[in-house]
Amino acid sequence: MRKISVLSILVILMSMFQSCSEKIETDLTQTAFIPKPTSVTATGDGYNLTKASLIYVQEGPAGLLSTAEFLAEKINQLTGNSAETKTTNSTPSKGVYISIAEDGELNKQGYELKINKNLISIKGADAAGCFFGLQTLLQTLPVANDNAQPLYVPTGTITDSPEYYYRGSMLDVSRHFFNVEEVKQYIDFLAMYKMNVLHLHLSDDQGWRIEIKSWPKLTDFGGQTEVGGGEGGFYTQEQYKELVQYAADRQIMIVPEIDMPGHTNAALASYAELNCDGKARELYTGTEVGFSTLCTDKEITYQFIDDVIRELAEITPGPYIHIGGDESHVTAHDDYVYFVNKVQDIVKKYDKKIIGWDEIANAKLIDDVTVQFWADVENTTMGVEKGAQVLMSPAARAYLDMQYDSTTHLGLHWAGYIEVDHGYDWDPATLVEGITKENILGIEAPLWSETVTNIDEVEYMTFPRLPGYAEIGWTAPAERNWDEYKTRLAKHGKRFEALGIDYYKSALVPWEE
Ligand code: ACM
């Protein structure tokens, strides 16, 4: 009797001791990170996130506080804590610490994420790097924690930086309009996968979507419909600024596009004087392309463009304005070249850099122009010969509005079907002969919205392909292969579900039940 009770006491004491110094078994290398980081090493312990209450930010560098607040909000959602942010001028011994590396220590947009039992340190090459490190940290955790389970972050070190500077997606808000809340949701999707550009296609035949105060009918009239005849809509400049700020807090820049001289019916319907014959066009709600053009030899056309670019540049802190330039089938070649030459000077006057679809390479390109490859190899290589950088958006690989296969109920297939493997399994630096990594600014996956009418449909076409484009932009090609990638993607299915994302459950991906 006596012996047993001594034993029991010993057992109780031992278990108490164990729970005090409890070692959580983890393996950071088993986390299904997308995009795949440059290097991950594991140390096999756990940081108890449930106890995290302070997020320290290095005093001095700008742009870190929004990342800290973003993290605090996520921690609080997951744990029910009320984690707070605080600035400091020395590395704390516990909690979470966000700081900037010494100059040259890390590659641009890169970060080092060090997780030990007491401290999580996110050190970025710049503020963007810190945010991307935070996104990596979040992928070690569930997206929701409904049962308020204790959460442990696996310990170890990740060092990481992107292959390309520009990793984006385009949302066509002209064919169908998406409101501010929907665009914010899209920005959240990009942020989760470390994408850093949202290109907004703000004008087309079917609708003008950005308020231009000096030409108010563009939105009062030209913004009032969309494909199929719905009511359309537009962003006031205040709303646009709100989107710019929301994106900037997630290290995403907005690249606004005014498509011209073609794809301009909404403007031509709003102002008769922009037409060569001086007659206003009817509003258009179909899906044909290539039938509209601004009048390239009227002075008023360039006054119009000057006003639009001036107002847009004033509310766009990012360096780029996209001038479209695609499918101007009813603009004579010489008129097109004359027009694109003049528009480049206008954009330059407002201190912005130019991006245009690959057709703009037919013009004389000024310095620092980026040609967005979507269809024509000859145009694109001509652009490179003229000194342009290339943004890779090959329609047959990267268009999010292309159907997955012949059974997809949304989307188009003029550039082919893009199953998830086909969308993932290519290298921007070898896809087109003569265009190499040195020529490439980055990659972008555009979502055109002829058939896509609401955010659920956006989600269905975007997921699960978007993480693949993010990885193409981020991870070195030698580190990527479909067979390994699909097993990581499979683990993100649950994350999509927890976030309420309506995704295409491709049979090529071994989704986890
Ligand atoms: C395009 O798809 N027309 C750029």
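^ acetamide complex. Residues 401 and 411 are 5 Å apart (CA to CA). The chain has two domains: 22-160, 166-477.
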